[in-house]
Design goal:
alpha/beta; Rossmann fold; globular
């Protein structure tokens, strides 16, 4: 029995979605056939079921690198080896809007948890086969997605004296900001897991009416979920 995720290993499958939002975990599980709640506790919620005949699991981890690392380590102890983060993110580029879908091709490491695994000079990148499956799934479904490098950190409300850092990241072409992908990619590289990440933009550099933002984000969230499900199914067909 694991320290935090209390369940029987037979209820955990190798293909795992790992959103931070527990409510999004339930939305993903609702796409499964015969989905069921496996366990809930210590901030984690876990569902399992089947998608197009493939057994899959989803865990809502909560926010930040430490909880992601603990949750995925314990699921890996129970047989999981393929993880796709389905998250939300802020954006940097002027062309990006609320509800846009972003597929992560790498992450600038500004969080602390990944440093416990590999030094800062080691790049945080997804598994290429998972990245390719996500891109192919978006194309097959006809859902546009931006593929690019993001940044992940620990302090959502960190004080910022000016916007120089943001302007630098924007100039470098960074397309997302969130709090978990650096840990996911680095822990995966260290442990030998397959990893990938897809996000729905919940922010924009252009004016957006408040009443439009929620509907646009939820549309993007559903698009990201659809792509992730199709990508995971594709990965399973090749195993």
């Amino acid at each position: 029995m694991e320290w935090h995720i209390k369940c029987d290993a037979k209820d955990i499958h190798r293909y795992v979605f790992c959103p931070g939002d527990q409510a999004r975990a339930k939305k993903i599980a609702e796409h499964f056939d015969n989905h069921r709640l496996v366990t809930e506790g210590r901030g984690y919620v876990v569902f399992s079921g089947e998608y197009k005949g493939v057994p899959m699991t989803v865990i809502g981890t909560g926010m930040g690198g430490p909880v992601v690392a603990i949750g995925l380590e314990e699921l890996a102890h129970m047989g999981a080896d393929t993880f796709i983060r389905v998250g939300s993110c802020g954006v940097f580029q002027d062309f990006q809007q609320v509800g846009d879908v972003i597929i992560g091709s790498g992450t600038v490491r500004e969080g602390g948890t990944s440093l416990a695994y590999l030094p800062l000079t080691y790049p945080a990148v997804p598994t290429f086969s998972v990245l390719r499956a996500l891109v192919e799934a978006s194309e097959e479904l006809g859902i546009p997605a931006t593929v690019g490098v993001g940044v992940a950190g620990d302090a959502f409300y960190a004080p910022r004296a000016d916007n120089a850092r943001g302007e630098l990241l924007k100039k470098a072409g960074v397309v997302s900001v969130e709090m978990e992908s650096d840990t996911l990619f680095i822990a995966g590289q260290y442990r030998g897991w397959r990893t990938g990440a897809i996000y729905a933009s919940d922010g924009t550099n252009k004016a957006t009416k408040p009443e439009d933002k929620e509907a646009d984000f939820r549309r993007g969230e559903q698009n990201a979920i659809k792509i992730a499900l199709q990508a995971m199914w594709k990965i399973a067909q090749g195993d």
